[in-house]
Write a structure and sequence with these properties.
The protein is an alpha/beta fold. The chain has 15 helices and 18 strands. Among the domains are: 142 residues, Rossmann fold (3-Layer(aba) Sandwich), CATH 3.40.50.1390; 140 residues, Hect, E3 ligase catalytic domain fold (Alpha-Beta Complex), CATH 3.90.1750. The strands form six sheets. It has a five-stranded mixed β-sheet, sandwiched between helices.
Length: 527
């Protein structure tokens, strides 16, 4: 008898259980931060060593992948807003490109407790821990901020101690006369050991002194040099301060005075008016101007100050007004000059376009009063304070999205395309080597690929530059928002606010001005 198929006892079914494979663990995107505080060759070499170390350190972990290495060179660690690398790191953390930050020590990332706690709290909100190698401290496992506060305070003390040691070292070099000038004055070059006369620039210095001693005004000297196309050491047009600084600089006599300026406890640069020792060295280097000519120039300068009612060291003498050099004419692009106007017995401060002063036909822009500018800036600040949620907050969110999505996405696209071009070039070279490709075709296709690569590289460079600028502007925008959150309505102009947040003033006409801020905004205000 034949059994039905479905009842055949020879057939046996066995259930095969699924194989449990471990879930593929997502790698952590790890970023490293390193910094050196000076731009010396030795320090920059140290920076390269740190970058190489972190690249190997992160790539050695199978559960990590390198997000990027961020760095700052030749800057102080005490001023966070001057550290572009750190600001970019924080911006990339906010755009969710990083899962973990690694750095050598607390002192590399922070130099004061306030910044330390602020950054750690912010990254903890983003669920991004920081690992400090030296202290073996991971902010992800911290139960309290107490330990971090104590250790960052120690880092702050270490920074202050290091600063004192550096200042002591500089003073010792002052005393020995072997201090290295970071930036030689116009007329000299630094050969690594001493000042050397620059013949071309020295001729201009001699001309400046000669013209001033025969009675020519600083203004006429400026006009003559600019008309001849002679530029300053920084490749800028000559201004009043540049000429005056040459006339009062004793280094042109071959002598040198060290510690004319110093850094206070808040790391702000100040003019030394007796608070610190100064060190005088005669015949320190080759002279350009005789002591007699220099002494005569000082007498003339003192006489002109007395005639104008200015004292050496006051704001008028040093040209340190808040608006000095920052008011721009929208018609001709020149800067405005501060002047005293008198009308029916009333004296007031006004700002006038330099081009208009020299030639009214070249620029028709009329003067604007100083008190009107101050009132306009105070009004603009009050509008920001009152309407920060309407103006600043949406702009910050927009910049975050733009920075995170558009620019970064396009950069990644360009990098991918460049990698493809590189692979195509290698393929062409192999085909050529194996004689599968004619020389003419090889040359033609190689040129086409190189042209395309050049186009991509130009766009990539522009995007990287704009990306860095966007990061800085975003940081400045956040700083401005913080300021408006903690500042009451203002009833008068504050010079410190202008210097802290504004770049320049644009004069459109006598009824309307614009204030260009460091965050990239230009806000118009009616007079």
């Amino acid at each position: 008898m034949i059994l039905p198929k479905e009842m055949n006892p020879l057939k046996k079914m066995t259930t095969i259980p699924p194989v449990e494979t471990p879930a593929k663990r997502k790698k952590l995107r790890v970023a490293a931060y390193c910094r050196v505080s000076t731009a010396s060759d030795a320090q920059l070499e140290s920076l390269d060593t740190q970058r190489s170390y972190y690249k190997n350190y992160i790539n050695a972990r199978s559960d990590w992948e390198l997000a990027d290495i961020y760095f700052d060179e030749g800057i102080t660690g005490t001023k966070m807003n001057q550290r572009a690398g750190l600001l970019k790191l924080l911006a990339d953390c906010e755009s969710r490109q990083i899962d973990l930050v690694v750095t050598k020590s607390l002192s590399r990332l922070f130099r004061n407790t306030t910044d330390c706690l602020e950054i750690v709290r912010h990254l903890q909100e983003l669920n991004i821990p920081i690992y400090f190698e030296k202290e073996n401290l991971n902010t992800q496992t911290m139960e309290s901020e107490l330990l971090l506060s104590i250790m960052s305070s120690l880092a702050q003390d270490e920074s202050a101690s290091t600063s004192k040691n550096i200042k002591w070292s500089i003073r010792q070099r002052f005393k020995k006369g072997n201090y290295k000038l970071s930036y030689p004055p116009y007329g000299y070059d630094w050969d690594g050991k001493e000042l050397r006369v620059n013949p071309e620039q020295a001729a201009v210095v001699k001309e400046i002194f000669a013209d001033y001693l025969v009675g020519k005004s600083v203004r006429s000297i400026i006009r003559k040099l600019n008309n001849r196309g002679i530029l300053t050491k920084r490749k800028n047009k000559w201004q009043h301060a540049a000429i005056t600084n040459i006339l009062i600089n004793e280094k042109y006599t071959g002598d040198a005075i060290f510690q004319k300026t110093y850094m206070d406890d808040s790391y702000k640069k100040k003019v030394n008016t007796g608070e610190r020792d100064q060190y005088f060295y005669a015949a320190h280097h080759d002279a350009i101007i005789s002591h007699e000519s220099f002494a005569q120039a000082q007498k003339l300068l003192a006489q002109h100050r007395q005639e104008k009612g200015n004292k050496k060291g006051d704001p008028k003498h040093n040209n340190h007004y808040a608006f000095s050099g920052k008011i721009i004419c929208s018609e001709c692009g020149d800067t405005f000059r501060r002047r005293i106007h008198a009308s029916t017995g009333n004296r007031y401060v006004a700002w006038c376009c330099n081009t208009h002063i020299q030639d009214k036909n070249a620029c028709s822009m009329l003067y604007i009063r100083n008190d009107q500018l101050e009132a306009a800036f105070a009004a603009m600040i009050n509008k920001l304070i009152y309407a920060r949620k309407i103006i600043l907050t949406p702009l910050i969110e927009k910049m975050k999205i733009y920075s995170a999505d558009d620019t970064i996405h396009r950069i990644r696209e360009l990098e991918t395309e460049l990698m493809k071009i590189t692979e195509q070039k290698h393929t062409l070279q192999r085909l050529m080597a194996d004689k599968y490709l004619d020389q003419v075709i090889f040359t033609q296709q190689s040129n086409e690929l190189q042209t395309q690569a050049n186009t991509y590289n130009k766009e990539l460079t522009a995007l990287q530059k704009s990306g860095g600028k966007s990061t800085e502007q975003l940081a400045e925008l956040k700083r401005l928002l913080y300021f408006t959150l903690h500042t009451p309505i203002q009833h008068s102009f504050k010079e410190s606010f202008f210097e802290e947040y504004a770049v320049k003033v644009i004069i459109y006409n006598r009824q309307e001005v614009g204030f260009q801020l460091k965050c990239g905004l230009t806000l118009r205000e009616r007079i």
